[in-house]
Specification:
heterodimer, A: 348 residues, alpha/beta, seven-stranded mixed sheet, six-stranded mixed sheet, 8 helices, 19 strands, 22% helix, 25% strand, B: 553 residues, alpha+beta, seven-stranded antiparallel sheet, 21 strands
Chain lengths: 348, 553
């Protein structure tokens, strides 16, 4: 069996990461014949492709967002399941990022490349834990690819939120969180910390949260915040898309404390700039230690780094004797950019 | 130290003044002496130890981390202390028997006596012992960069609230106090007498003016106000007093209370009458006030050489008299203090100190005319050094801070040009994740037709909303990236026009355009204007001629 050069298997193209021998693109940003999709966030899962291969959850989320006809045809694949596409074998593994998120292992003539999409190695009660997949080439994200990003324990941050709720019983707490994944994780963490009061939701989160519940994730009593009297919101917690927390919409709350659950909250200037009073460092992406530990553990000799702080991670890989290069892919996951778009697009 | 750091952290995120006061007073109540005293000193800028240079902090982090990773991180975070605090990798300590983290008192007192060579090791130990917030606060403190969005005034107000005292009372005795303020807290808690100020030449907190808007005039009566020129120099307080043995002590303070006597030894002999003058520091040559550009060349010099003193003769132009010998004049109305000032300056009879003249006017129209043309309204040949006019209520006492409706400043209209955004760089501090530093250019004829030449950099003047808009524009219209700098599209039909306001213009061989602006800021975003309609370099050159600025002697 003759080994193939990795770039003959996967190559960045205008539409996204292209697999010629397999005849598909991974997370394409433009409509393509055949798309293989890692997870349901709107920068990775776009409508208009011919055929889509993804986990059932990811397909369901796309259907929720884009309607029944979001693709020509769909095929669901389970974690650990392997199928043949063209000259390649494609296998899905859990990525631990959000419900249904997957890493995609592409093997062709003995060379295995893992496109990990977005991932985290930290515990998350709302999705299947990240699985380490040994490979020859590992494609990693670098959203938090700087050593200043160390996220700590998410449950400590939730304790911080609860302490503030106890301190200001006359105020409402408004937690900005991406509506796919982060919001449900924060709710679940609140429940695990023993908070059993009803939690209120911004309208943009209803559908996706209900979907999580339909997949057997118990989130306790949730109520739409719409129509609730101002005075009744004192001492409560409401989750909303980040863009809504600085909106006129917040005027329905009594003297709200604005929190934001995001890995970006690690950097003071980011929190202050957004007018956040209670920064909560909770991230669905791997932090610096997570990225570097994962890279090392895959055993891959070659690392391709995409979306985020590529320079730092590439430098780190090279200093460890690994072959590494930034992948010039555009259109993904700069949460900086996607924090303020329309309410339906805030879940990056 | 961790408790103090926690306070700083809370303060940094808390926007409301009253909530900040509650946090501060709560801290003073909860934390005992002497930690709270050193905290008060840190918050009011009253701590004195030799600050660690940023280079030392860089060396420390370099010994623990990769240089490239540090550089990228610093570029991203935009703040040295925070970067180091976040990425500091703790040394492998024994899992048990760790030393407790240091108290604020321990940090402050150790820093006072620590030798320069021992500092790095000590800092390293503390960084290992503290948590992330503690490290951040420690580094802010040792580098002398503890700016956490509260004023010294607010910290003193919070302390005063501990004993239900008027903050003004604390201000008056403040100059005689020193950290850790055991006597102050004893008095505030009713355990001791009110401390007495024994400094012979103390600083008095400065009174500041509001910028006047057109709409303000309607409510003001010209007869209630005295007008004077606002000189383009440095606002100072010159204080002389007798010590216990009757000798004169003289000190020069900046408007924030920093003792700057050492930079101006040539003025000290002139401060021989006990009193406190509020005035403007200027350079005078042959009786003529020189521009701020000239004064600037005397500032921030490490060594004040005889040559410097001779070439840049210092002068004090007096606005106000706060103390006359033993008498505190601050409660008197301004009109009365002004009379006392005239007498005082006459008695002093010193060529280095003169009176800033008042500008007579009967109506706002008359004052508008005087402001537009200071030369024919009394400023004569010094008109170029006039920055605008000041309006002071005749009956206003001298109050620290910026009290409403007492003093107004009315600056001359700034210069304005339309320029094209060329490059953008991420800001520092609060703006570290936003492209907030802008290099802009104007058109000039080049070899291949018209081209843009950079004429300046600005990083404020816009609103938060406008910052978001520009940031988005920059990210979407980047043509090239060089580290933290982005080249932004700037073609005749494509790009962003910025209206730039600035105070002055000077020739500068260091700039490609040959001109440099003073105090440039973005005054408006001209989304409506195509770049080809922006101003040309010739416009600036015409302004330059009118300006008659003098950067080189």
């Amino acid at each position: 069996m003759s080994h193939m050069r990795p770039q003959d298997i996967l190559l960045p193209a205008a539409a996204g990461l292209c697999c010629k021998p397999g005849g598909f693109h991974i997370d394409p940003v433009r409509p393509v014949e055949r798309a293989v999709i890692t997870h349901g966030h709107s920068d990775h899962a776009r409508p208009g492709h011919g055929a889509v291969l993804a986990t059932q959850e990811t397909l369901d989320m796309m259907r929720l967002r884009y309607g029944e006809n979001f693709a020509g045809s769909t095929q669901a694949i389970r974690y650990g399941e392997e199928i043949r596409l063209g000259e390649t074998n494609v296998k899905f593994h859990p990525a631990g990022h959000v419900l249904g998120s997957a890493q995609i292992a592409v093997t062709c003539k003995g060379t295995c490349i893992v496109a990990s999409g977005d991932y985290k190695d930290a515990p998350d009660p709302t999705c299947t834990p990240f699985e380490l997949v040994p490979c020859d080439v590992f494609i990693t994200e670098a959203t938090f690819g700087l050593p200043v990003f160390r996220h700590g324990d998410a449950s400590d941050e939730v304790e911080k939120l609860l302490a503030s709720v106890a301190l200001f019983p006359e105020r409402a707490h408004l937690v900005g969180a991406y509506s796919l994944g982060k919001a449900q994780r924060v709710i679940k963490l609140l429940r695990q910390a023993g908070y059993d009061a009803p939690i209120y939701l911004h309208g943009a989160m209803d559908a996706i949260t209900a979907y999580y519940q339909s997949r057997g994730i118990d989130l306790g009593e949730l109520r739409p915040v719409k129509g609730v009297k101002k005075a009744a919101l004192a001492g409560t917690i409401t989750l909303a898309p980040p863009s809504a927390t600085s909106d006129l919409w917040t005027r329905r709350f009594p003297d709200p404390v604005t929190a934001f659950a995001s890995g970006w909250m690690r950097v003071r200037a980011r929190a202050r700039q957004r007018g956040v009073e209670l920064p909560l460092v909770i991230s669905d992406h791997a932090d610096w230690d997570g990225l570097t530990a994962t890279i090392g553990a895959t055993g891959a000799g070659e690392i391709w780094v995409t979306h985020g702080q590529e320079d730092a991670l590439v430098h780190w890989c090279r200093s460890k004797g690994l072959k590494a290069q930034p992948l010039d892919l555009v259109g993904y996951g700069d949460e900086e950019e996607s924090e303020t778009p329309a309410a339906s697009e805030v879940e990056a | 130290m961790n408790r103090f750091a926690e306070l700083l952290d809370r303060l940094a995120y808390e926007p409301g003044r009253n909530n900040k006061l509650r946090l501060l007073t709560g801290y003073f109540r909860e934390v005992g002496d002497p930690d709270r005293g050193y905290a008060l000193a840190a918050l009011t800028g009253a701590l004195s130890f030799k600050h660690a240079k940023p280079a030392l902090i860089r060396d420390l982090i370099a010994s623990r981390t990769d240089e490239v990773l540090f550089g990228l991180s610093y570029d991203y975070v935009g703040d040295l202390s925070e970067t180091v605090a976040l990425m500091w990798p703790k040394a492998e300590l024994a899992a048990h028997n760790n030393p407790p983290p240091p108290t604020l008192t321990e940090v402050v007192t150790t820093l006072r006596t620590l030798g320069k060579t021992e500092l790095p090791k000590q800092l390293e130990r503390w960084l290992d012992e503290l948590d992330e917030t503690g490290r951040w606060a420690l580094l802010k403190l040792v580098t002398g960069a503890l700016r956490i969005g509260i004023s010294a005034r607010l910290a003193k107000t919070a302390a005063a609230a501990l004993g239900d005292k008027d903050p003004h009372e604390v201000e008056l005795i403040w100059p005689g106090l020193s950290p850790p303020y055991l006597d102050l807290f004893a008095w505030l808690e009713g355990r001791g007498d009110k401390p007495v100020n024994r400094d012979p030449a103390p600083f008095r907190p400065v009174m500041l003016a509001h910028a006047i808007e057109d709409a303000d005039f309607a409510a003001l009566d010209p007869a209630d106000y005295i007008a004077e020129w606002k000189w383009d120099g440095i606002r100072v307080q010159a204080v002389a007093g007798r010590d216990e043995r009757g000798h004169i002590t003289a000190r020069l303070y900046s408007r924030t209370g920093e003792d700057i006597t050492g930079s101006f030894p040539d003025l000290v002999p002139s401060l021989r009458l006990p009193g406190a003058i509020d005035g403007e520091l200027l350079i005078l040559r042959e009786g003529r006030v020189q521009s701020f550009n000239v004064l600037q060349q005397r500032l921030n010099r490490k060594v004040v050489s005889p040559k410097l003193i001779k070439e840049f003769p210092i002068h004090l132009r007096a606005y106000d008299l706060l103390g006359d010998d033993e008498n505190d004049l601050r409660e008197l109305p301004f009109a009365e203090r002004r009379e006392r000032l005239e007498t005082f300056i006459g008695k002093l009879d010193d060529s280095r100190i003169d009176l800033s003249p008042t500008v007579s006017f009967a109506s706002w129209e008359a004052l508008t005319a005087a402001r537009a043309d200071p030369a024919s309204a009394g400023a004569g040949e010094d008109a170029d050094a006039v920055e605008g006019v000041m309006l002071k209520r005749r009956d206003a006492p001298y109050m620290p801070g910026r009290p409403k409706g007492q003093w107004w400043k009315w600056k001359r209209d700034p210069h304005i040009i339309d320029a094209v955004l060329m490059y953008a760089q991420r800001g520092h501090g609060k703006r570290s994740s936003y492209y907030s530093d802008y290099t802009f250019g104007v058109w000039t004829s080049g070899e291949g037709g018209d081209e843009l030449v950079p004429v300046g950099k600005a990083y404020f003047g816009f609103t938060d909303e406008e910052l978001l808009q520009i940031d988005r524009f920059v990210r979407r219209n980047t043509t090239e990236k060089f580290g933290p700098v982005r080249h932004v599209v700037h073609e005749p039909e494509q790009g962003l026009v910025l209206e730039v306001a600035f105070e002055g213009l000077q020739r500068s061989p260091r700039h490609k355009s040959g001109v440099a602006m003073r105090f440039p800021r973005i005054s408006r975003l001209r989304w409506d204007k195509p770049p080809r309609e922006a101003d040309r370099l010739e416009t600036l050159e015409r302004m330059l001629k009118a300006e008659a600025a003098e950067i080189e002697m």
